[in-house]
Amino acid sequence: MGQKKKSQIIVYTSGTFDMFHSNHLKMINYAKGLGHVLIVGVSTDELVSSYKAHPIVPFEERLAIVEGLKSPDIVIPQRSLDHKEVVKNLHIDIFVVGDDWTGKYDYLEEYGVKVFYFPYGAGTSSTALKKKIYESYSEIKKRIDNHDNPDIVSK
Questions:
Q1: Cβ-Cβ contacts under 8 Å for 130 (sequence gap 6 or more)
Q2: Taking the CB of residue 55, how many other CB atoms lie within 10 A of it?
Q3: 138 three-state secondary structure
Q4: Helix (H, G, I), strand (E, B) or coil at 123
Q5: How far is residue 127's CA from residue 143's CA, in Å, rounded to a whole number?
Q6: How many CB atoms sit inside 10 A of residue 64's CB?
Q7: What are the extents of the domains in the chain?
Q8: Stretch among 41-45, 50-54, 63-67, 86-90 having the lowest mean pLDDT
Q9: Alpha-carbon distance 154 to 148, whole Å?
Q10: Whole-angstrom Cα distance, residue 126 to residue 19?
Q11: How far apart are the first and last CA of the chain?
Q12: Which of 30, 35, 55 is nearest to 45 (CA)?
């Protein structure tokens, strides 16, 4: 007998989704438009901490935010950057990730998966948001710390 043709295209995208912003939403919505079923992996705190700074927003909250969106059909924890098992176990047809990972997941094409690197462009990123918040905080702290104390009389 011939092999039955698959009727639904399953798309997988994943990320940290720390300090959720519009580029996260754009990538998730783009991924949804590529198929019938969208599975979104949210990186655990332990996974993120293995390759960059610990997320500001805890895993459970990041997971809840993504679950609250209308585009994902299924939201799961992502515990590894090696996606071979996810692709195999969930029968993923298309994999979408931000273009800051360009080339990293080309190996998935060996498993029959189409890989798309979503262009974030010059827009918002969690890293840029964290930097801006830190710089603003530092500026405010400097102004607060560097002032004359009216209770101390200079001699």
A1: 19, 53, 56
A2: 21
A3: helix
A4: coil
A5: 25
A6: 13
A7: 10-121
A8: 50-54
A9: 10
A10: 6
A11: 98
A12: 55
Which among 12, 27, 1, 5 has a CA at the least distance from the CA of 91? 12
Torsion angle, alpha carbons of 144, 134, 77, 119, to 10: 150
Which pTM was predicted?
0.80
Share of the chain above pLDDT 90, in %: 64
pLDDT above 60: residue 4: no
What's at 55, amino acid-wise?
P
Contacts of 107 by beta carbon, 8 Å cutoff, 6+ apart: 84
The identity of residue 80, as a single letter, is S
**For 36-46, what is the mean pLDDT?**
97
Asked if 28 and 71 count as a contact pair (C-beta separation under 8 A), the reply is yes
Supply the DSSP symbol for 9: -
- Is the domain defined by 10-121 classed in CATH 3.40.50.620? yes
One-letter amino acid for residue 30 of the chain: Y
Which are the contacts of 74, defined by CB distance < 8 A and separation ≥ 6? 37, 38, 39, 40
Strands 10-15 and 37-43: parallel
